[in-house]
Amino acid sequence: MAGRKTATDFGWKVIRRLAEKELTRKEFCSINNVSQSRLSEIITGNTTRNTTAIRLKVSCLLEIDDCDRT
């Protein structure tokens, strides 16, 4: 599909954990005060902004192994 971005390896981990927790992206973002657009950028790796802090927050909230990264 034109315009669709594919997920990075980390993005797939996020998607899988959200499915395991039975949360939509929108629900996760609302509960944890994370911007939906920032989460999308983290999943696709398509960003011009520094998303390191938010990526760390997401990985810790979803208990993804990337949580130890500083």
UniProtKB/TrEMBL annotation:
InterPro entries per record: Lambda_DNA-bd_dom_sf (IPR010982)
MF-aspect GO terms: DNA binding
UniProt name for this protein: XRE family transcriptional regulator
Organism: Cohnella endophytica
